[in-house]
Amino acid sequence: MKNSRSEQDIEGSHANMSFVHVLRPDIIVSSGIAELDSLCGGFKAGEMTLVDGNSSLISDLPNQLCVNTYRTFRSDTIYIDGGMCADPYRIARYARMAKLDQREVLQNVVMSRAFTVYQLSTLLQELLEPMILKRSPRTLLIGMLPALYLDPEIPAQEAQAVLSSDLQKIQNLTSRYQLITVCTNLDLMPLSPSRGLGKQLYDSVSEIVRMKQFEQYTSLELVKNQKNATIVRGAKGQLRLEAFGMVN
Predict the structure, then answer these.
(1) What is the CATH classification number for the domain harbouring 42?
(2) Residue 99 domain-assigned?
(3) Rounded to an integer, what is the distance from CA 172 to the centroid of its chain?
(4) Closest to 114 (Cα-Cα) out of 87, 136, 90, 86
(5) Distance (Å, whole) CA 113 – CA 124
(6) What is the distance between the alpha carbons of residues 33 and 150, in angstroms, rounded to a whole number?
(7) CA-based nearest residue to 119, from 76, 154, 168
(8) 196: exposed, middle or buried (C-beta count within 10 Å: 0-12, 13-18, 19+)?
(9) 203 in Cβ contact with 21 (< 8 Å)
(10) pLDDT digits (tens, 9 = 90+) for 120-169
(11) How far is 246 from 30, CA to CA, in rounded Å?
(12) Mean pLDDT in residue range 94-108
């Protein structure tokens, strides 16, 4: 029996189908800090986030993300250390607290350390993409990203040119491979969003999480989305689960 639908009907149905969008949940990794995850919804694939400020929580954030990436996706994390901040022992500690095999977690963290801005640029420009193709990571971490570009022996104009090229490379790889990219900057004074290297960084990322530490609390700000939250310190001697990367 012949199909009774006319060619016009079929064409019409295809035309209607073009307006149907299949929505899928975002690919997200938790920071392990309950207040931060509530504020930003976790770190998302295809986005580059800068975590900037003077809070001590920033130094442990990459360690938690290594563990949470493995726990969530059973996939690799590429961790590029641009400021002597990477600590495999702390990653292993968080893995134990999350009741994961610490060796398995560490085997899924590809760690590279740069000691000069030119070493860092070579890692980003030449070595990063081959490693992405080899390991298929879900998360890319760059610890203390701006530190090496602030070397007083490098002319400011040259540092800005190298940073601009490197940021463009990170953006392209983040988009092409749908990476969850998180860069950190832990400093006593946050970067200036209106000039120099700070402006370059702030203009290049999807979101800036500014974490400022005070005596009794830490303030959280999503600079681009203009949202705020507060982490209140517990009573003396009180431990918080997020301090051990245990919060989903």
Answers:
(1) 3.40.50.300
(2) yes
(3) 15
(4) 86
(5) 11
(6) 29
(7) 154
(8) middle
(9) no
(10) 999 999 999 999 999 999 999 999 999 999 899 999 999 999 999 999 99
(11) 10
(12) 96
CB 78 within 8 Å of CB 131 = yes
Is the residue at 231 inside a domain?
A: yes
pLDDT-derived band at 115, boundaries 50, 70, 90: very high
Q: Is residue 2 part of a domain?
A: no
Domain span holding position 216: 27-244
> What are the residues whose beta carbons fall under 8 Å from the beta carbon of 71, sequence distance 6 or more?
98, 100
pTM for the full predicted model = 0.83
Q: Which residues contact 57 (CB under 8 A, 6 or more apart)?
A: 33, 211, 213, 218, 231
Closest by CA to 102, choosing from 116, 117, 114, 89, is 89
| pLDDT at position 190 | 63
Instruction: Please give the structure tokens belonging to residue 86.
Output: 């990477």
35-68 pLDDT tens trace: 999 999 999 999 999 999 999 999 999 999 999 9
Within-domain flag for 18: no
In angstroms, rounded to a whole number, what is the distance separating the alpha carbons of residues 74 and 195? 40
**Distance between the two ends of the chain, CA-based, in angstroms?**
57
pLDDT greater than 50 at residue 18: no
- Return the sign of the alpha-carbon dihedral for residues 132, 135, 141, 142: negative
What is the tally of structural domains in the chain? 1
Residue type, 218: T
Please tell me the predicted confidence (pLDDT) of residue 6.
47
pLDDT of residue 124: 98
